[in-house]
Amino acid sequence: MSHAPNAVARLRDQREDEGIKPIQARGFRSERCRDCRVIISHCLCAWRPTVETRSGVCLIMTGKEVFKPSNTGWLIADVVRDNHAFIWSRTEIDEQLLALLNDPQWQPYLVFPGEYVEPSRVTNTVGLDNGKRPLFILLDATWTEARKMFRKSPYFDRLPILSLLPDRLSRYRLRRSTRSEHLCTAEVAALCLELAGDNAAASALDAYFDVFSQHYLGAKQQLDVNLATPAHAELLPFIGNTQAIQAG
Predict the structure, then answer these.
(1) pLDDT at 125 over 70
(2) Among 25-29, 158-162, 189-193, 207-211, where is mean pLDDT lowest?
(3) Cβ contacts of residue 146 below 8 Å, gap of 6+?
(4) Coil, strand or helix: which one is 193?
(5) What one-character DSSP code corresponds to residue 66?
(6) Which GO molecular function, any one, fits this protein according to its record (predicted)?
(7) Is the dihedral of CA 104, 111, 195, 4 positive or negative?
(8) What is the DSSP track for the chain?
(9) Contact indicator for 33, 2 with CB cutoff of 8 Å
(10) Smallest Cα–Cα separation from 153: which of 65, 220, 91, 222?
(11) Res. 185: pLDDT tops 60
């Protein structure tokens, strides 16, 4: 089953067309699938879920993040049909991003910890009765980079801040983190989707994230692909073409 490239994939292609070279991550010499970024032997493409969402997502990424094979913003864009991605710049404002933020069909929410923002801007809920669809603005970067993006982007100043109250620790194991309570971008997006009532998409993204982590780490550790895991079983109901999986 073929899928159209998501916004992050298109952004990567654009950067490459501009002559910007991808980072050389550990294991870069191994051939990776162009579509899912996982080493070919552990390709994830057959496990990409198909699910409807009312919500949209907009990923604001650093120039490096779009090339990282461990990036989880890519997974969000795979799951949420209305997905957008932009490279952040302190000095240049993307007019398409401004147009998206001003589009009357959307109610944008900038997802960021509430303790860093004046209380009047902060909400812990997503409004579902104003006729607009939720658009979650996610700063897809390291925590240090995300704080810089937040401080130096004046076009975010008018947006409500969605501050999440997660009751679980991060399951992200693909990069080192000193804080287990810091969720990765895909985990954050799943919480947002749940708040917006897109429960099927939240479940699909959670399972897709776990399956991606297993495939990615399995390839890194040179382990055989194991499809008989609880995460694969949870993701299976969201797969549109199970024949491809059975054939694999």
Answers:
(1) yes
(2) 25-29
(3) 112, 139
(4) helix
(5) G
(6) tRNA-uridine aminocarboxypropyltransferase activity
(7) positive
(8) ------HHHHHHHHHHHTTPPPP--TTTTS-B-TTT-SBGGG--GGG------S-EEEEEE-TTGGG-TT-SHHHHHHH-SSEEEEE--SS---HHHHHHHH-TTEEEEEE--GGGS-GGGEESS---SSS-EEEEEEEES-HHHHHHHHHT-GGGTTSPEE-----S-----SS--S-TT---HHHHHHHHHHHTT-HHHHHHHHHHHHHHHHHHHHHHTTPPP---SHHHHHHGGG-S-HHHHHH-
(9) no
(10) 91
(11) yes
Question: Mean pLDDT for the chain?
Answer: 88
pLDDT computed for residue 5 by the predictor: 83
Helices (H) and strands (E) in the chain, counts: 8, 6
Task: Specify the amino acid at residue 126.
Answer: V
Half-sphere exposure of 71 (CA within 13 A, CB side): 31
Q: Which amino acid is at 200?
A: A
Contact 56, 80 (CB under 8 A): yes
CA-nearest of 195, 203, 194, 190 to 230 is 203
Phi, psi of 111 (to 5 degrees): -85, 115
pLDDT in tens, 85-122: 999 999 998 999 999 999 999 999 999 999 889 999 99
d(C-alpha 170, C-alpha 167), whole Å: 10
- Asked whether residue 70 carries a pLDDT value surpassing 80, the answer given is yes
